[in-house]
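User: New here, please read:
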Amino acid sequence: FHRPGPMVRGWDFYDVLPTLIEKGVRYIQVQHSPWFLMFSFPSPHLPIIPQNRFDRTSGAGPYGDAVVELDDAVGQLLQAVEDAGQTDNTLVIFASDNGAESIAYSRALKYKNWSSGPLRGLKRDLYEGGHRVPLVIKWPNGGVPAGTVSRALVSQIDFMATIAAIVGIDVPSSAAVDSFNLLDEFRGVSAKAVRKTMVYNSVAGQFAVRYMNYVYTAQRNGYTRDNPPIAWRRIC
């Protein structure tokens, strides 16, 4: 994908996600003892090439169709967990690594679909649209209540301390010093915020710090390589 280098014979990008899903489902099917699966989806990252059966299923162009395909792929993994009889006792964490790519501007203008919701900015930007992403957690027997929404401040680095607490492993004091155990947050029983601050940066080396519901930055412009097009700024 737009990078020079060797490629395995017969490689086809259209086959990547279906092949990964097939392997993920097969892995789940053969597990009998406690198991771990980290599944890194290649979509909806560029290139945006959903399989033909998902074309025009979203009403939001090829990117939207790729999101529908992603939803279907997640469903296949969850169905494999269900078929294995492990749904109630399986912790599922679904998240993204960053905000949407810069093609979100043209998609918003054409399809009236803005990936960052109420937030400014996209991937690489200092603004929160580049960093705040959805996080969905499912764990019926683990005390995570279904259908609830948390306002907690969470970083994905907190997964280490949280999962270590779940499986009963003591993390050495010299390791994961910036990781917080958020299990009570996920269960909705935390009396106060566990994580209160977070420092993040843009691809241009700009920094910001969030404290609770406030964000501070010394930068006058949080956009980096991709400033919003003029047409976008007019409607905003």
Observations:
- Helices lie at 16-29, 61-83, 104-111, 158-167, 183-187, 230-235.
- The CA atoms of residues 122 and 130 lie 4 Å apart.
- The first helix runs from residue 16 to 29.
- The first strand starts at residue 92 and ends at 95.
